[in-house]
Design goal:
Blueprint (H helix, E strand, L loop, with lengths): L6 E6 L3 E7 L5 E8 L3 E5 L3 E6 L3 E6 L5 E6 L3 E6 L3 E5 L3 E6 L4 E6 L2 E5 L3 E6 L3 E6 L2 E6 L3 E6 L4 E6 L3 E5 L6 E5 L3 E5 L4 E5 L4 E7 L4 E7 L2 E6 L12 E6 L3 E5 L5 E5 L3 E6 L2 E6 L3 E5 L3 E6 L2 E6 L2 E6 L3 E9 L5 E10 L4 E6 L2 E6 L3 E5 L3 E6 L4 E6 L3 E6 L3 E6 L4 E6 L4 E5 L3 E6 L3 E6 L2 E6 L3 E6 L4 E6 L3 E5 L3 E6 L4 E6 L6 E6 L4 E6 L2 E6 L2 E4 L24 H20 L1
Antiparallel strand pairs: 1-2, 2-3, 3-4, 4-5, 5-6, 6-7, 7-8, 8-9, 9-10, 10-11, 11-12, 12-13, 13-14, 14-15, 15-16, 16-17, 17-18, 18-19, 19-20, 20-21, 21-22, 22-23, 23-24, 24-25, 25-26, 26-27, 27-28, 28-29, 29-30, 30-31, 31-32, 32-33, 33-34, 34-35, 35-36, 36-37, 37-38, 38-39, 39-40, 40-41, ...
């Protein structure tokens, strides 16, 4: 059947089938013909497809990315795409390329090759991998060979276990390589070192900044060259020494320097600067006006313009040197002395010095401080000028007086006594008998927790207590006493106050007093007035000054008698 916008066809199922397709206007837009299983032809607006037998396929795809495909299963597959990717592939080969981007991919069995716009990759299955780009280059041959190169940093590392290692660094063009177990090499910008690791030991060492080169097979034959490698050097400045240890040494230069040695018995070197002559038992060297040193069995002596050393084994050693300033003149004196170590060791460094003896006595000195220790840590003494004095003798005492901070610590360890004093307080404890605390506000003294003495600086008061036995309270106006728990109390005026006396006994049942000449009797809580009578002022003890003569002078005796007579006259008038 057929109609507008539909399909029309027929066939003989399941072998033959044919149909045509129309759009809404009745125009043919495609057709399909099938002769199963030999032939298939399909036409559509977006593609064409032809199949001969089930093994040969051809397709033409239209649209945004038009392309032609051909496949011969399973031997070949091909694709052609204008301004796109072309592909040719078979069972063992795959080849694709993009002429626009100038990239391609090739796979042949385990081998693969890929070129992109940024890098190139090649490899052989899991056995090899190669990568090259603008930033790095890498080669991997698992599990022994790895090579990494950073093109930006200009560094390269290559490892081929177990015989090869190569490392190139950008800094100073440094390179380190090793061919194990034969030779190792280190190359710098102007220096290099090549050293053998196995016998015979070959060395080739060059240092441009030190101006020397050493080459040879040690110890059989070697050569040492000093000078002549820098641009300003002259040919006659090069010193060359040939040697074969211990057979011989021979060297010379163009400045009349000669060196020779034979069988390791001696070493002789003479130049315009001086001479050197060494043997196994004794030797000497001299540079006139600069240096002299010599040695003999158990004795060594060296003197230069900058230092001098004396060594007498094993009794005595002394070394003294100087440090130079920018002007080349010595400015700092440094010396060290040994006498039968550890019997005595001392060191002097300009304004500082220290010494010790038998590891028991130590002393350190500075311009403002001296520290001494005996059998540390048993005894120690340190004195800093007008700043601090610290000393102890363990286990007896410890004293720390910090004058700079106005603070001091004192401890008598056997007596369990500790005192701390600073600008704010003064505290002392003798455990467990005496406790004393004093500051700007109060003063507290406790004696074995049986006697208490508390004073207030602000109130100018003082309280003294012996629990259950005695109590005393003093203020600026009065002074009171208490005996026992209510047995007796009495109170007198303070110094400078009008005379007054009050007393009680037997739990305040009886008592009496005199206040401003008015006497009274206290009986069971009742106050009975008595005949007025003047009360003499309380006797006060005169405090003698620190430097006052304890013996009274006649003038002081007369003054005291006159004062007593005046008090008695006032008392009789009342």
């Amino acid at each position: 059947n057929g109609s507008e916008g539909g399909r029309r066809g027929g066939g003989f199922l399941p072998l033959v089938h044919h149909e045509r397709r129309f759009d809404s206007e009745g125009k043919a837009i495609g057709a399909t013909s099938v002769v199963f299983p030999l032939f298939l032809r399909d036409r559509r607006p977006e593609r064409d497809l032809d199949v001969w037998t089930p093994l040969i396929w051809r397709a033409q795809v239209r649209g945004d990315k038009p392309r032609n495909n051909l496949a011969v299963v399973p031997f070949y597959f091909g694709q052609r795409q204008a301004n796109g990717v072309d592909v040719d592939a078979s069972l063992f080969v795959f080849w694709s390329r993009d002429r626009t981007r100038q990239t391609h991919t090739l796979v042949v069995g385990p081998y693969y090759h890929r070129l992109t716009r940024k890098k190139l990759i090649s490899g052989l299955g899991p056995l090899a991998y190669w990568e090259d780009s603008d930033k790095r280059r890498m080669l991997v041959l698992p599990p022994l060979v790895v090579s990494l190169e950073d093109k930006v940093a200009r560094e390269r590392t290559t490892v081929a276990l177990p015989i090869w290692f190569d490392r190139v660094q950008r800094n100073d063009s440094r390179r380190v390589w090793m061919a194990f177990p034969f030779v190792v090499g280190v190359h710098g910008k102007h220096n290099f070192t090549k050293a053998g690791l196995a016998v015979p030991l070959f060395y080739d060492i060059h240092r441009l900044y030190k101006n020397f080169r050493f080459t040879g097979v040690v110890p059989f034959l070697f050569r040492y060259q000093k000078g002549g490698f820098q641009l300003e050097d002259k040919p006659e400045d090069r010193y060359t020494l040939w040697g074969s240890f211990p057979l011989f040494f021979y060297g010379k230069d163009g400045q009349r320097r000669r060196t020779h040695s034979a069988l390791g018995l001696y070493w002789a070197d003479r130049s315009p600067e001086g001479f050197k002559f060494y043997t196994l038992l004794a030797g000497a060297a001299q540079k006139p006006g600069k240096e002299l040193h010599w040695y003999a069995p158990l004795i060594y002596r060296k003197v230069t313009n900058e230092e001098h050393t004396t060594f007498v084994w094993p009794i005595f050693a002394y070394h003294k040197g100087f440090r130079k300033g920018k002007d080349g003149k010595p400015y700092k004196d440094i010396s060290t002395t040994w006498v039968l170590p550890p019997l005595y060791v001392g060191r002097h460094n300009e304004d500082r010095r220290w010494w010790q003896s038998t590891l028991l006595v130590w002393q350190f000195k500075r311009p403002h401080k001296v520290s001494t220790a005996v059998a540390p840590p048993i005894f120690f003494f340190q004195d800093s000028y007008q700043q601090r004095r610290l000393h102890w003798l363990l286990p007896l005492y410890l004293r720390d007086n910090n004058m700079g901070k106005g603070e001091a610590w004192t401890a008598v360890i056997p007596g369990l006594y500790v005192q701390h004093r600073n600008q704010k307080h003064n505290n002392a404890v003798q455990f467990p008998l005496l406790w004393h605390f004093r500051n700007d506000k109060r003063r507290v003294t406790i004696g074995g927790f049986l006697w208490y003495d508390i004073g207030s600086t602000r109130k100018q008061s003082r309280t003294q207590v012996v629990p259950l036995l005695y109590g005393r309270r003093q203020t600026p106006e009065k002074i009171g006493h208490l005996v026992g728990p209510g047995l007796a109390t009495w109170r007198r005026e303070a110094e400078g106050m009008p005379p007054a006396l009050h007393w009680r006994a037997l739990f305040w049942l009886v008592g009496g007093g005199n206040e401003e000449g008015e006497r009274y009797l206290w009986l069971f809580g009742a106050k009975i007035k008595l005949e007025p009578k003047a009360l003499a002022p309380r006797k006060t003890r005169k405090r003698r000054g620190k430097n006052e003569n304890p013996e009274s002078t006649p003038e002081s005796i007369g003054d005291e008698a006159a004062r007593n007579e005046a008090i008695e006259a006032a008392y009789l008038r009342l």
